[in-house]
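ugh ok fine here u go
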Amino acid sequence: MQTLIALICGLVFGIGLILSGMTDPAKVTAFLDLAGDWDPSLAFVMLGAVAAAAPGFALAKRRRASVLGTPVQLPASTKIDRRLLIGSLAFGVGWGLAGYCPGPAINSLGRGSSAALIFTVSMLIGMAVFEGLERYRATRRPATITQ
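structure:
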């Protein structure tokens, strides 16, 4: 049942991306071009998404399990640190340069978009490099002594 619900949610999300124009890199870059021919329409998409998600997050904060019985796992940390800022910056630069973020890029793969393929492969390489660096950092940290 969880797989079916996940499939339905993914389809609704993908259709929403298409209908809102989030899969069109030209529309995204026009939204991000504040100094040029700015297209504010995606701001309304984002506001709508936040308005739709807010009640769900408020409800999830009060529950230990989902309707299907799986544990609710919300982020525990609210700390804004260097890693979060660097990751946000990398995401924003990639979004601005390519006009894609992960969801719309994967959605656009279904259309056979070569730009989405290049973005997705680059994103996966970046994720692999990050994971490798994290594993390397974990081996270089001094062991903590517990008593």
